[in-house]
Design brief:
With 129 residues, this protein is of the alpha+beta class. It has one domain: Aspartate Aminotransferase, domain 1 (Alpha-Beta Complex), CATH 3.90.1150.30. The chain has 4 helices and 6 strands, in the order H-E-E-E-E-H-E-E-H-H. A 6-stranded antiparallel beta sheet has the order 1-2-3-4-6-5. GO terms for molecular function: DNA binding. Keywords: DNA-binding. InterPro entries: YjbR-like_sf, YjbR/MT2646/Rv2570-like. It comes from Gordonia hankookensis.
């Protein structure tokens, strides 16, 4: 039995996330477990998630692989959460809204992408700041 769809294609926050994620080289969007995921071979972003160990859902959020050096600081920020399932593999989630800092979202997705993308795809990106 397939997972139920847990997002609205008309969601303006999802539209912004798509714009950022799909601008990265060789990225595709795949619906998995009822949610949009962003991949370059492997997954680097997931739209929507829930808190690990609870049933609290964050339908407007992005799950990503943080830079390990930034992880402790991100976890100290209340906008970030440890997601169910993917949190055990080092992923974090960021709760989003229309007035989110979209440059920050772009930086987080870029860092996540650079951790999983093949070298030939990363070579298509400008050097990080």
């Amino acid at each position: 039995m397939p997972h139920p769809i847990m997002f609205d294609d008309a969601d303006p926050v999802l539209a912004r996330v798509r714009e950022i994620a799909l601008a990265l080289p060789d990225t595709t969007e795949v619906i998995a477990h009822g949610r949009p995921t962003f991949r370059c071979g492997k997954m680097f972003g997931n739209y929507g998630g829930s808190d690990k160990g609870s049933k609290v859902r964050h339908d407007q959020s992005i799950l990503f692989i943080p830079d390990e050096a930034e992880r402790p600081a991100l976890l100290d920020d209340p906008r970030f959460f440890l997601p169910a399932y993917l949190g055990a593999y080092g992923w974090l989630g960021l709760v989003l809204e229309e007035k989110s800092d979209w440059a920050e979202v772009g930086e987080l997705l870029d860092a996540s992408y650079r951790q999983i993308a093949p070298r030939r795809s990363i070579a298509k990106l400008p050097a990080p700041d």
